[in-house]
Amino acid sequence: MFTLFYGALITPKSLTEYTAAPQALVCVSKVSGVIEWIELDVPSSAFEDTLAKHGLVDLQDHEVVDLKHGEFLMPGFIDTHLHPCQVPNAGSGQEHELLDWLKHYTFPLEARYKDGSFAKRVYTEVVRRIVNAGTTTCCYFGSLHEEANRILAELVHAAGQRAFVGKCNMDREAPAFYVEPSPDASLHSTLSLISYIRGLTPDPSSALVQPVLTPRFAIACTPDLLSKLSALALSDPSLTIQTHVSENHSEIEYTKVLFKDVLPPPPHGETRGALTYAGVYDAYNLLRENTVLAHAVHLEEEEIELIHRRKAGVSHCPTSNFNLRSGCPKIGVLLDKGIKVGLGTDVSGGFSLSMLTAIQHASVASKLVTLHHGALPGHTPAADGFASKQLSIPTLLYLATQGGADVCNIGARVGSLVPGKAFDALVVRLHSDAGNPGIWGADLDKELCITRGDVKESEAEVRKHELEGLLERFLFCGDERNIKRVYVQGRFIGGTEFQA
Ligand SMILES: [Zn+2]
Q1: Which of 151, 254, 332, 388 has the least C-beta neighbours within 10 A?
Q2: What is the CA(216)–ligand 1 centre distance, in A?
Q3: Cα of 83 to ligand 1 centre, how many Å?
Q4: In 183-239, which ranges are E strands?
C-alpha cells in the first residue's frame, strides 16, 4: 500500500544546492510513512512504465496524489525554537529588551499554565496553528509545569506532529509566583515528564514526540540545579537538550557575574580559558551533539570553537533577535566553521509562528551583516564561504529544513525528501484563489503569459526555472493559506485541505 505523489518536487541537497524537479514521482509507504523511492523526471508518457519498473501495475490498492500546476512538494519546516506557552503574547511587549520583557510580559503569562485547563485550551489552539503553518517538527520550550507539558505532549502526539517537548528548569532569578521551589523538585518533575513522554509510544524508536531537557538559561538555574541536570544528561546520552545562549549583552554579562567563582572544571580534562557563556553549559556537560542552542548572537571566538568541538547546533531566531533588539548573529561565520544551524521562530520573542517569517528575517539579517561586513574582525570571507554574504535561497531552504533536522540530531530521518527518510512534507499551492493577497499565483502567470526564464531556454529549463521562482515567491510572500497539505511520517495531519 503506497501513496504516489506525481508533480513538482523541491528538496535541499546541501547548503548551496537544492533539487527542483518539475515532474517527479514519489512513492511513500502507507504502513511505515517512509519514502520508498523517488524518480525525478517522469513525463506523463512514462508514468505507467515508471510504475511498472517498480513493480506497480495495478494501482487499485494505492493512492495517487496528482499535483497541479502551481503546486509542489517540499520537506516540512523544522522549528528549532518556540515557546508554546508564550504564543498568546505574540505581538506584545516589543518595547522591551530581553530581561525586562521576561519580567513584565513572559513570566506572568507562563505562570498561568499552573492551571491545566488553561494549558489545554491554549495548547489545543497552538498545536493546530503550528501544524497548519507547515512545521512538521517543533522544539517546544514549555513552561515549568509538569502537568501543562504532559497536556502539550498529549496534544502533539494526537495531532501526529514530530516534536520535542521540554519542561523548563528554573529555580532562581524569577518572581516568587513563577519559580521552582528547589533543584530537587525541578529534577523530580523533569524525570517524571521524561518517562511520561517516553510512555506515549510503545516503541520508542518510532516515537514522534520525544522529551528534551530544557534549562531555561544559565541565569535562571542555580549551580546545584545545573549539577543535577548534568548528572541526568550524562546518564542519558540520547536525551536532547535545549537552552538559550548569548542572546543579549546584559544577559551575557550577568551570566558571567553569576558563574565567575562557582564553575566546575570543563569536561574531558580540558583547561578553561576565559569564562564564556557557552563554557558555563559545557562545565555542566550540557553541550553535545544533541544540544540545541537558541540565538548565539554574540558568541566569542572561544565559544564558536567550543560549540564546534562539541558538535552542538545553533537555532538562529532572527525575528526575535530584531524584535527584542538582541542583535544580528553572524550566521555565515558559524556555517563556515561547520557548526550546524537551523531556524527558530522563538515565539513570543519573535512575533510570528510561521517559519516563513523566520526565513524572511534570516535573509534580511544576513543582508544587514553584508552591509556591515567590515564589522567582522578576524574573518576574511572565503570566496566559497558564507561569512559576510547574504544567505542564498538554497541556504535559507536548507536551514529551515535539513539544517534544523541536523540541529535536532534527527537529520538522518527527516529534513529532505529522499528514499529511506520519513515523509515529512508539505504540498504547497501558489494560486490566486488561496486567499493570500501577498502572493502572485502561478495561475495568473499562465493566464497572462508572464515568463521569468530566458526565451532561449529549452522547455525543461523553463519549467525548472518556473519552479525555482515559485519556491522563492513562497518563501518570501507565502503564508499558511498556501500550505495545502502537511504530512508527518506519511500521515496527512494539516494544511488548508485538512479536516479533523
Ligand atoms: Zn527562547
Answers
A1: 254
A2: 8
A3: 6
A4: 209-215
- What pLDDT digit, counting tens, does each position of 327-336 carry? 999 999 999 9
d(CA 167, ligand 1 centre) in Å: 13
For residue 219, report the distance from its CA to the centre of ligand 1, in Å: 14
272 and 349 share one domain: yes
Verify that 254 and 241 share a domain, yes or no: yes
Specify the DSSP class assigned to residue 351.
Answer: S
Q: Which CATH number covers residue 289?
A: 3.20.20.140
What is the 448 CA–ligand 1 centroid distance (Å)?
45
Give a yes or no: residue 412 inside a domain. no
* The amino acid at 259: F
Distance CA(335)–CA(166), nearest Å, equals 27
Give tens-digit pLDDT for 384-413: 789 878 999 999 999 999 999 999 999 999
**Beta strand pairing call for 209-215 and 162-166:** parallel
| Ligand 1 centroid to residue 367 C-alpha, Å | 23
Strand partners, 25: 6, 39
Residue 56, pLDDT above cutoff 70: yes
**Per-residue cell: 428:** 504547497
- pLDDT number for residue 13: 98
Task: Give, in order, the Cα–Cα distances in Å from 298 to each of 222, 249, 284, 290, 403.
Answer: 23, 8, 21, 21, 21
What pLDDT is attached to residue 381?
57
